[in-house]
């Protein structure tokens, strides 16, 4: 462990530089995480943006853990019955729920920070206006979604300014986003939630067929809630409540505790099937937490639309016991494939996670929140140890974190080695396959025997895969802090 006072891990080095500047300005652990998070919406637009959502956990030095959920709702006028009748997942403007990330940042800054949100926004605006270097992860995402980028005037202007895709080392300049950030810094987040910025975004979405109104944006509020928690592997694990899938991770942790061995395919399939059947918006009706926490053997999960490259995680912790796990997302890579040209905002497609089944807890409905993949994690263990962790990985986030869990609970485990270790995930279209498949990285101890017995295909990648997630982890305790960033991403860890 390092003797530094605090540490942070993030998937892009520009985010760490912003965190360093926040620390130099006297900011605390939450300020560092926020500085990194705001910066990531400028430098990593394929994974997060002002047009996305945020879920975070914060542990205070007194041991209190609180969840901040800023996940947006569908428009009040969304044609839900018509969309369900079509039987097709939501795409385009209909998949854009109200973006919550700005309200989430403001809630975190107000409740826990010492640096005003406007300072972070102005720094990010300067970065957007001056241009940022395209890193390998962004360049790969541009190539992967080239067709969608070509089809959208806003994305094409940003990412193919000379008619060909930006590549590694090229400069990406975002003057419209810079202007938007400066407007919000000057006028507050109300400029987005019902003000001039929001009105421009709504007008752009309505031109594309969306049902959004300024009132939909103005009605959004970030929610502060008690986390869900369970004891397993000698530690206490805290996750955000529904509509997030944090409860699915708790189910997997319970299976690890009961089984006394590595994560099994059967446990993942059961927990995933329960999530797909039971998870929804608790504001619209009760959620069966017991069913989610103790899933019985279920049929394979319903096929999911591919959602790789969707998310960034920022983890930070300090020696005083403060820990932050912050996750923000545009769901699929570049979200809905929409960059609203006047504001420079990339819009997520979180609404594509709605169920089209009448009566489902996660069914598309006016002002409903879709089932959410974001899964921040805070772990506390004997000896005053606290761990903040999170990962990119879409629906597979609980699987990824469960594979890391034994190392997260072990104070002697080296975090960098844990993140570099080969992993496996199971899914369908969410990991790019037509049938249920276990995708294993080279050297991963994948559950091939049980997969074959269950009729699940097995595929092995020839290199570490983004589909196995980008995890960020920080551990703090009496002996100092330790941090690690996933080698599959473009980031690092910073000690201050």
Task: Fill in the keyword field for this structure.
single chain; alpha+beta; Glutamine Phosphoribosylpyrophosphate, subunit 1, domain 1; 2 domains; six-stranded antiparallel β-sheet; 17 helices; 34% helix; 20% strand
Describe, in plain words, how this protein is organized in 3D.
The chain is α+β, with helices and mostly antiparallel strands and 496 residues long. It is built from 17 helices and 20 strands. A 7-stranded antiparallel sheet has the order 6-3-2-10-9-1-20, with helices on one face. A 6-stranded antiparallel sheet has the order 7-8-13-14-18-19. Strands 15-16-17 form a 3-stranded mixed sheet. About 2% of the residues have low confidence.
Give the SSE layout.
Layout: E1 6-10, H1 13-24, H2 29-43, E2 53-59, E3 65-70, H3 80-86, H4 101-112, H5 117-130, E4 132-133, H6 136-144, H7 146-151, H8 153-159, E5 171-172, H9 175-187, H10 196-207, H11 214-218, E6 223-225, E7 228-232, E8 235-239, H12 246-259, H13 265-278, H14 289-293, E9 311-318, E10 323-329, E11 338-340, E12 345-347, E13 377-381, E14 385-392, H15 397-408, H16 415-420, E15 424-427, E16 437-440, H17 448-453, E17 457-460, E18 470-477, E19 480-485, E20 492-495
Parallel strand pairs: 16-17
Antiparallel strand pairs: 1-9, 1-20, 2-3, 2-10, 3-6, 4-5, 7-8, 8-13, 9-10, 11-12, 13-14, 14-18, 15-16, 18-19
Helix pairs in contact: 1-2, 2-4, 2-5, 5-9, 12-13, 12-15
